[in-house]
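PT: before anyone asks, these are the final sequences, not the draft ones from last week. 578 residues across everything. Please model them as a single complex and drop the result in this thread when it's through.
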Amino acid sequence: MKRGVVAFILLCLVLFPGVCWAESAEEVGNLLDELDLDRLDDAVRVLKDEIDQALPGLDFRSLVTSLARGDLGYRPGDFLAAVWRYLFQEVIANAALLGKLVVLAVICAVLQNISSAFEKSTTSRVAYTAVYLALVTIAVGSFMIALNTGREMVENMVIFMHAMLPVMLTLLCAVGGFASAALIHPLIVVVMNMAANVVKNIVLPLILFSGILGMISHLATGFSLSRLADFLRHVGLGIMGVLTTVFLGVLTIQGVAGSVTEGIAFRTAKYASQAFLPIVGKMFSDAMEMIVGSSLLIKNAVGLAGLLLIFLMALFPLLKIIVIVFVYKLAAALVQPLGEARLSDCLNTLGNSIIAVFAVVATTALLFFFALALMIGLGNLTVMLR
Amino acid sequence: METLQNLVRELVILIILAVFLELLLPHGDLRRYVRMVLGLLIIVAVLQAGVSFWNRDLAVDLSWVSLGPPDQAATAEIIREGERLWQMGQARAMNEYEEGLARQIKALAGLNPDLRVSEVRVRLEGGAEAGNLGRLEEVILVLDEDGAWGGEEVPVTGQPIAAPDPQAVDRLRGLVADFYGLSPEQVTIVGR
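LR: through. Structure below.
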C-alpha cells in the first residue's frame, strides 16, 4: 500500500514536471476563447449538484484561468470541510439502514435463542428464516444502491472524458503533438469505452452475483456457496486487473512512442533553423518556444482542471460507497456478540462485496485519471524532447 | 452475463427450497437424501451454465466490447482544429520574430553615420519545410533623407538621382548582407 502511494506520488512528479505560471490572464483567455468548451461545460453542469458542495460556483473556464495563474481559487480547508460534511450527511442518511439491520439481527438472535420455548422448534426457525430473508432483501437493496452509484460514476466519467478528449488533444496539437494526437485519440476512445463497458457489464455484475451468493449461502446451513461466491469475485477482480494492465500498457507505449517521434522531428527542425540561420535562427526558435510554452501552459491548466474534476467526480460516490461499507461492517460487529454467527458473517460478506465494488470503481476512476495525466505528460514530453 | 444471471437465480431458488424442505421434512434419512438431491441439482445447475458458456459464440456475446471501428472523422476534426491553433501560434511567432528582426537590423544600420535608415522591412520564408521556415528572404532598408526622393519609394542604385554617398550605400548593404548571411541582392535599399 505504502509502495503504491509512493509510486503514485512519483508518477505525479514525473507527469507534471513543473508548470510555468507566469503567463498573463489575457493570454490564457485568448487561447481559451479559441477552444470549444461547450461540451465540457455541459458535462460539468451535469455534475454540478455534487461538486457544488465542495467547490461552490464552479465553472470550467474560470477554473482553468485560475489554475493557469497558479491559484486554485478555493481554500483546501473549505474543501476538506465540505468533504467532511458530505461524509457526515451520508453516515446520518445510512443510520436508518444500520438501525434496521441491527434490529432485525436482534430479532433473529432472540428467535434463535428462544426456539426451545416453542412446542416445535420449526416455528421459530420459520420465523428466523423469514426475518433473515427480510434482512437479505434490505441488504440487497442497499447493495444495489452502492452498485448503481458506482455504475453512474463510471458513466459520468466516460461522458466527461469524451468532452475532455477533443480539448486536450487539440491543445496537444497546438504544442506540436500531431502524431501523438492522431495516434492516441482513436486508441484512447476505444480503450476507455471498452474499460467502462467491461466494468459496467461484466465486473460489477460479477461482484453483485458474488455478493448475493455470499449472502444466500449463510441461509442454509448445509448448502454453502461461499466458494462459488469467492470464485466469481476473484474472476471479476482478475478481469479488472487485466483491464488495468492493458489500459495503462497500451496508452503508455503508444503515447511515449508518439511523443518521442515528434520530439526528434522538432529537435531536427530547431537544430536546422539555428544552424542555417545564424543569429536570427535562435530568435525564431525562441519566439516559437514562447508560443508553444503558452499553449503548453493552457494545456496543463485544462488537464489539471480535468484531473480535479475527475477526482471530485470519483470522490463523492466513493465516499457514499465507503459509508455503506462502514455501516455493514459496524452492523456485523454489533451483531456478533449476540451469538448469531451466521447473520454477522452474512453482513460481513456483504461488506466485503461492497469493498470490492469500491475497489473496482476506484480503480476505474484511477484509470481515467491516468489517461488524462498521460495526455498532460505527452505534451510536456513532446516539448521537453525539443 | 445472462447465463450467469440465470445460474444465480436458480441457485438462490434452490437454496431457499432447501431451507424450506429442511423445515418441512422430519428428521431422519429422508432429510439427508433430499439434501443430497438438492446438492446434485446445484452441481447440475452450475455445470449446465458452464457448458452453455462453452457452446456459445463469445465473439458475438462480447461484440459490444470493441464498439466498432474508431471514429476517424472525430480524429480528423481534432487534428484540423489543432492545426488551426498551431498555425495561429506560428503566425504570432513569425510576427514577433519579424518585428524583432526589423528592430535589430535598424539598430545595426543605425551604426552607420552616413545614412539615416527610417524603416526596415523583412520578408521571411513562410514554407512549412523544417529547415526553411523563418529563413530570411529579403531585407528592405528605407532611407529617408528629408524627402530627397520626393516622398515616393525608389530604389537607390549606383547612379541615384540624389543619392548620398554611393559608397556608403554599398557599405550598408554589405554590412547587413554579411551580418545575416545573405547575398547583396537580397538586401534592397530604397529611398523615400
